[in-house]
């Protein structure tokens, strides 16, 4: 496990801090249940800056390819993460509550020991689809079912109830 990046969020913004690096998927433990495997990594960049109203915030970018678990077939689903977000830093609970009332603003509480990897993991989880699945007809089980139906469809021409009707007539 690599060393965790912990920043004092307001100090990071005051000093116009910039950090970047890579996070192996193995380290994003809360994502593991959604993943098909733990292959790959995310590259990230976080910078402290002020918004147009001179409020402190963090500009966060994360990119990478991960393998989600398809909810239909439970197979591997390639997914590209291209996350860009600005998080306003609220100095107290009241500011955070006011920021939460505006749907156009994402805000977090400014704390002196902000774990950047946990923050990135939170944002990635929030950016994922509610139900990850292949497009229609792309699941491996759906493809197998369609192929099976074609084989069976060629062999049987009568409806199952038609077979029962003929049995009924003969008896």
UniProtKB/TrEMBL annotation:
Has keyword Nucleus?
no
InterPro entries on file: YceD, YceD_bac
Quote the protein name from its UniProt record. Large ribosomal RNA subunit accumulation protein YceD
Which Pfam families does this one have? YceD (PF02620)
- Organism in which the protein naturally occurs: Nitrosomonas supralitoralis
Assigned protein family? Belongs to the DUF177 domain family.
One GO CC term, this protein: cytosol
Keyword Aminoacyl-tRNA synthetase appears in the UniProt entry = no
Identify the domain of life.
Bacteria
Known role: Plays a role in synthesis, processing and/or stability of 23S rRNA.
* UniProt keyword annotations, A-Z: Ribosome biogenesis
Q: Which one GO biological process term can you cite for this protein? A: ribosome biogenesis
